[in-house]
Design brief:
The protein is an alpha/beta fold. The chain is built from twelve helices and 13 strands. Bound molecules: beta-D-ribofuranose (BDR) and calcium ion.
Length: about 325
């Protein structure tokens, strides 16, 4: 049976790969995509999601408009040099929005109630919308969600926005703190593993010739743009990390990631804003089990790559 997944994303190139991956993976049933600001402005993020859904013929997937900025009210910094001016590298997504309904944040509640006890939340964007759920509806609002799979943070490696902080945690550190505090059964996929989830140009070339999916024409141009940005930022890198695919894959193939249970805290302000903190001393302070988060510390990259290729190559993709 497939996992019912409510996905929060900010497409963005690796988010777009994650959305495509989730649509293509037969073990995932996406029950909604919340698209908010982050890599691009919220309106663009919604448009990009609508475009991918349209390509797949999956207009049955509800699109929910997320937040326009962080809880602090600070202006948003976007990242066109990494994700392209419109979030899909050089691709200008046609306006497919007029054909779809875009829901507001209340739809999240509706979905949570509909899939009670059987819903996985995967968050690969900023944490603003999830934090807002707690702020608007109270601490128990997400208690029936089975688990939270979150891409964010960086442990024992540098950040990618500041020396200490990763983008999803940094861009709304207040929200990240709230979510890590209040959500239960959290599995975290930080940079220390997602940086290694590298897909190379050869692999993408192969997919762009052989993927039988409707996403095929997008793969090469979107990847090339993203890879160029990584080559600039990380000299010598041999491909580009698909951060946002990791939590989705870890859900359907649990062997891929190994976890350490620790309570995760997030610094909200000052020079360490967005820094993820956990107690890695050999004898950490004791924590009650309900406050522990599961931090991804090791990933089987060969399995990651194989699974990624298999999903994009599977031949029985059917438009629903
Ligand atoms: C995260 O930041 C975003 O820019 C990527 O899409 C990913 O979710 C990596 O730090
Ligand atoms: Ca993202």
């Amino acid at each position: 049976m497939a996992y019912d997944v409510l996905l929060f994303a900010d497409p963005g190139i690796d988010d777009s790969f994650a959305i495509m991956y989730a649509i293509l993976n037969p073990d995932i049933n996406i029950v909604g995509i919340v698209s908010g600001y982050g890599n691009t402005p919220k309106e663009q993020s919604v448009k990009n999601t609508a475009y991918l859904i349209d390509l797949a013929g999956r207009e049955d997937i509800p699109i929910i408009a997320g937040a326009a900025g962080p809880l602090s009210g600070e202006p948003v910094q976007y990242y066109p040099e990494i994700h392209g001016p419109e979030g899909l590298g050089p691709i200008k997504p046609p306006d497919t929005l007029q054909d779809v309904e875009v829901h507001d944040i209340n739809k999240i509640l509706e979905i949570i109630n509909e899939y009670k006890d059987n819903l996985i939340i995967v968050n690969v964007g900023r944490l603003t919308e999830l934090a807002l759920m707690f702020i608007l509806y109270g601490n128990d609002v997400l208690k029936d969600v089975t688990a939270f799979y979150i891409m964010g943070g960086a442990f024992l490696v540098p950040g990618n926005i500041t020396a200490e902080a990763e983008a999803n945690f940094y861009s709304d550190a207040i929200a990240a703190r709230i979510v890590m505090e209040k959500a239960h059964n959290v599995r975290l996929y930080p940079l220390n593993i997602t940086n290694k989830a590298i897909i190379t140009p050869d692999m993408i070339e192969f997919l762009s010739e052989n993927s039988p999916t409707p996403f095929r024409p997008l793969l090469q141009p979107a990847f090339d743009y993203y890879f160029k940005a990584y080559q600039k930022n990380v000299p010598g890198i041999n491909g580009a990390p698909m951060h946002d695919v990791v939590p989705l894959m870890a859900l359907t193939d649990p062997e891929i990631v190994k976890y350490i249970p620790r309570r995760v805290r997030v610094a909200e302000f000052g020079n360490s804003k967005g820094k993820s903190i956990a107690d890695f001393r050999p004898k950490p302070d004791p924590e009650p089990p309900e406050t522990l988060d599961y931090i991804g510390m090791e990933a089987d990259i060969l399995k990651f790559v194989t699974n990624f290729m298999e999903v994009f190559l599977q031949g029985d993709f059917e438009k629903k």
